[in-house]
């Protein structure tokens, strides 16, 4: 999910209120998107919730934690993932679980940012010390 395009056609208008899961059909990797983007790969599936009694973040984290390693170059959504049956708690519990993991992700992002700044500071000090 890197890059930039000047194209205006075919942009998926994902947002904070209407996020999607981008699922790679060959690698089975999944990514959360809550921003507009353009998909230029036929192997990607855009997943939304089927109903209002599912929590988006719970579904996303559940999908990311399915232990499956692709054995060949085939369409894994069609042949494997769309057939999986996954038990889930009631909606209220899904919201609690999804919210908990989203908060953890936010905390990890915050600390990664702090770590990168400290590593940059360390690098600068080392350069000054040995120049």
Descriptive notes:
The protein is of the alpha+beta class and 131 residues long. The chain contains three helices and five strands. The protein has helices at 56-64, 76-79, 91-129, and strands at 11-12, 20-24, 30-33, 37-38, 44-47. Strands 3-2-5 form a three-stranded antiparallel sheet, covered by helices on one side. Strands 1-4 form a two-stranded antiparallel sheet. Strand 2 (20-24) and strand 3 form a beta hairpin. The longest helix is centred in the last third of the chain and has 39 residues, at 91-129. It is extended and about 60 Å long.
What percentage of residues falls in helices of 4 or more residues? 25-40%
Question: Radius of gyration over alpha carbons?
Answer: 19 Å
Order of helices and strands: EEEEEHHH
- Give me the count of strands: 5
Structural key phrases:
two-stranded antiparallel ribbon; alpha+beta; 3 helices; three-stranded antiparallel sheet; 40% helix; 5 strands; 131 residues
What is shown here, in short?
Helix content is 40%, strand content 13%. The protein has helices spanning 56-64, 76-79, 91-129; strands spanning 11-12, 20-24, 30-33, 37-38, 44-47. The longest helix is centred in the C-terminal third of the chain and has 39 residues, at 91-129.
């Amino acid at each position: 999910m890197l890059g930039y395009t000047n194209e205006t056609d075919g942009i998926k208008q994902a947002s904070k209120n209407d996020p999607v899961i981008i699922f790679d059909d060959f690698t089975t990797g999944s990514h959360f998107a809550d921003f507009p983007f353009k998909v230029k790969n036929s192997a990607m599936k855009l997943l939304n919730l089927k109903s209002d009694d599912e929590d988006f973040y719970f579904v996303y984290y559940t999908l990311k934690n399915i232990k499956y390693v692709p054995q060949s170059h085939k369409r894994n959504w069609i042949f494997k993932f769309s057939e999986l049956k996954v038990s889930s708690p009631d909606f209220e519990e899904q919201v609690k679980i999804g919210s908990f993991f989203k908060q953890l992700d936010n905390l990890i992002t915050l600390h990664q940012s702090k770590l990168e700044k400290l590593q940059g500071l360390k690098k600068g000090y080392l350069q000054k010390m040995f120049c």
